[in-house]
Write a structure and sequence with these properties.
The complex is a heterodimer of chains A (359) and B (287).
Chain A: E1 4-12, E2 23-32, E3 37-41, H1 48-56, E4 63-68, E5 71-72, H2 78-81, E6 83-86, H3 98-108, H4 113-126, H5 142-154, E7 161-165, H6 173-190, E8 193-198, H7 201-207, E9 210-215, E10 218-223, H8 225-230, H9 235-240, E11 247-250, E12 252-254, E13 257-260, E14 263-265, E15 280-284, E16 289-291, E17 300-309, E18 313-320, E19 323-330, E20 339-344, E21 349-353, E22 356-357
Parallel strand pairs in A: 3-8, 3-9, 6-7, 7-8
Antiparallel strand pairs in A: 1-2, 1-4, 4-5, 9-10, 11-15, 12-13, 13-14, 15-21, 16-20, 17-18, 17-20, 18-19, 21-22
Helix pairs in contact in A: 3-4, 3-5
Chain B: H1 10-35, E1 37-39, E2 45-47, H2 51-58, H3 60-90, H4 97-110, H5 113-124, H6 130-137, H7 148-176, H8 180-188, H9 193-221, H10 225-230, H11 242-252, H12 256-281
Helix pairs in contact in B: 1-12, 2-12, 3-7, 3-9, 4-7, 7-9, 9-12, 11-12
Classes of the chains: A alpha+beta (359), B mainly alpha (287).
């Protein structure tokens, strides 16, 4: 087990990167606490697999160092770093039995058979494969094979961290949920640092204590699932996490207050907003927008355009001036016909400049 | 479910039946026809039953040829398959050298078989050939036209040169289809190079290697052209394999009955051994 530190990490796949877009990873300084459950979340091509490969040692970064517990491991192989990894497509040794698969990493390291047997049975118990130990690994289903991949990581006692590279891609939907909660449970039991790469927000938010959101080779926010939801540091996080994503509305700032379509709003508390330059936007999640009722004053005039039913709530799309705003109305809530006024919860409304949060 | 029966549907099968009949069944049946009859010329035939089959199977000449054939085939399989796999393992997986290697490997396969025989015949001649002269200059008493051992050595060398490429190309195709994740997982699991070969590369190559072994088995069992140009079966009968012997009987002596019976036996041996090979190599596949 180890604390992992990434120091000014940059990586480019081409030999002589010049432009900003040549870098797969732009600049990263990160610390991963020992024993944490982390998720790396981002759209395809954002650099999360690159980052994972750099941590595991399959890839050497163009620039920067990787430290495990203060030791520089940048030039070490995955084996020397004591890393385990579960890949997107299940990797099992076809000709071996489940037992031999699990024993493989230990036998390669010259562990004596008695200890191997004990560890293998212990881990098989944990991942529910005890009854299949004598089966040939090739005959297992995709989720069984992923469990073997994971088991090969767990069986070693010297593992610093276990990496998951979109491990549920090929698993049937109804088994995904099972395997995910199994993973969470295993993490609580073994307390090994786990880093989980995915582009699925549900997977990331349910698995991780802390989520690292990446976009275009940069980390845009690191936080608990609640942080990401309640206070996105970047409009990208707002968009990407949540369903539907955050409303991002162009705004102007005058007299220290944000104005959307000419109407003043309370955003980011009620303090004076000193910024006026850059591209200014207001971000508010659909969960924190409501229709004005009798007794409310002010609000953004809007027209209801579309209502879609999502079960326990309805998603309403409203049009204010030339921007569209989504809001959630709980079951039984009242939806005004056509004309309405929208109110934003000031504590959950933030102002962004050039994508980054201001207040 | 109610199926509509319409016998006119057979008409759709007719072209295939005709094709198979003309290129396989009818030629084979003429051989069967010869194998059970005796003739004294003038196109007059008498029923002979299984006489020719008994005669061929009991003849020492056939048994010797079969033994030589088996020796040849298993020797070249033992050399070509491991060698082919070894070469495939050392070939680059990506980069500019891939096409170069592939073309170099394919070259021997593109040369007409009789040319291969002629090339090696001249190459190995003890007085003017590069190989023959060099060996003699080095102090070896090498003469493949006179000494059976040298003839065998040359024959096997020629076959290895000609056909190892096929095994290489098939094994290489199997190797490049292994996803990178397997190698990365093996690295992480601390597998040594031999373990990577034994537990990842070999199992993943199994299917293509089965094809390679079957093809090399069948082709080497039927080898004729290169061999007839290189040694013609000599010196003496020392390199007379089944096909050479068959041609001697059928065209040299014009013994149609024994030749036909031998052809059928020859064919059945290939069929049987191919089946055995395939069954053995695919045995574990269904578990």
């Amino acid at each position: 087990m180890a604390k992992i530190v990434l120091d000014t990490l940059r990586h480019a796949y081409m030999p002589n990167p010049t432009e900003d877009s040549d870098w797969a990873l732009k600049q990263l300084d990160l610390e991963w606490e020992d024993g944490g459950a982390y998720a790396l979340l981002g759209p395809s091509g954002c650099g999360k697999t690159t980052l994972l490969s750099i941590i595991s040692g399959l890839l050497r970064p163009t620039h920067g160092r990787v430290f495990f517990d203060g030791q520089d491991v940048t030039d070490l192989t995955p084996e020397q770093r004591h890393i385990a990894q579960v890949f997107q497509f299940p990797v099992v040794y076809d000709t071996m039995t489940v037992y031999d698969n699990l024993a493989f990493p230990l036998r390669n390291r010259g562990v004596d058979e008695k200890h191997v047997d004990q560890r293998v049975r212990e881990i098989a118990e944990m991942i529910d494969l005890t009854h299949m130990l004598d089966n040939r690994a090739a005959g297992l289903t995709a989720d069984g094979k992923q469990k073997i991949s994971l088991g090969r990581g767990l069986v070693r006692s010297d593992v610093n961290a276990i990496m998951f590279d979109e491990p549920l891609t090929v698993i049937d939907p109804h088994l995904k949920w099972q395997l995910r909660s199994k993973l969470k449970e295993l993490h609580q039991r073994v307390r090994t640092t786990m880093i989980y790469v995915t582009h699925d927000q549900t997977e990331a938010l349910t698995f991780a204590d802390k989520v690292v959101v990446m976009n275009q080779g940069e980390v845009v926010q690191i936080g608990t699932p609640v942080d990401l939801f309640e206070r996105p540091q970047h409009t990208f996080v707002g968009h990407f996490i949540g369903s539907p994503g955050m409303n991002v509305l162009p705004c102007e700032i005058a007299g220290g207050r944000a104005h959307v379509a000419g109407v003043a709003l309370d955003a980011g508390g009620s303090g004076d907003l000193g910024v006026t330059s850059g591209k200014l936007e207001v971000g508010v999640r659909p969960e924190f927008v409501r229709f004005a009722e009798a007794g409310d004053t002010g609000g953004l005039p809007a027209r209801v355009v579309k209502v879609s039913d999502a079960g326990r709530f309805r998603i309403v799309e409203a049009q204010a001036a030339d921007t569209s705003i989504k809001l959630l109305v709980p079951e039984g809530g009242n939806i005004p016909q056509e004309q309405a006024h929208l109110l934003f919860d000031p504590d959950h409304t933030a102002v962004y400049r050039d994508g980054w949060i201001v207040a | 479910m109610n199926k509509t029966h319409d016998n006119r549907a057979w008409l759709f099968v007719l072209p295939v039946v005709a094709l198979v009949a003309f290129n396989a069944i009818i030629p084979l049946m003429t051989v069967v026809n010869y194998s059970v009859q005796e003739t004294f010329g003038d196109n007059v035939f008498f029923w002979a039953g299984v006489m020719w089959f008994e005669q061929v199977l009991q003849s020492e000449r056939f048994q010797d040829a079969l033994l030589r054939q088996l020796t040849f085939t298993f020797t070249i399989l033992l050399i070509e398959v491991p060698l082919g796999v070894a070469i495939a393992l050392t070939m680059p997986k990506k980069g500019p050298w891939v096409p170069v290697c592939l073309v170099l490997m394919a070259l021997p396969l593109l040369i007409p078989w009789n040319v291969v025989g002629a090339m090696w015949n001249i190459f190995a001649l003890p007085d003017i050939g590069l190989l023959g002269r060099s060996l003699n200059a080095l102090g070896f008493d090498y003469n493949f036209t006179r000494q059976p051992g040298d003839a065998w050595f040359t024959l096997i060398l020629m076959d290895v040169w000609h056909w190892t490429s096929l095994v290489v190309l098939l094994a290489y195709a199997g190797l490049v289809s292994i996803p990178d994740a397997y190698y990365q997982a093996a690295k992480i699991d601390g597998a040594k190079p031999f373990a990577v070969f034994r537990y990842i590369q070999l199992p993943k190559m199994k299917r293509v290697l089965t094809i390679a072994v079957l093809l090399r088995f069948m082709d080497s069992f039927m080898i004729y052209t290169e061999l007839s140009v290189l040694t013609g079966g000599g010196p003496g009968n020392s390199t007379t394999l089944l096909s050479i012997d068959l041609v001697k009987i059928a065209l040299g002596q014009f013994d149609l009955g024994p030749a036909a019976a031998m052809s059928l036996i020859y064919f059945l041996i290939i069929l049987l051994l191919s089946w055995v090979f395939y069954t053995l190599m695919m045995r574990n596949e269904q578990q």
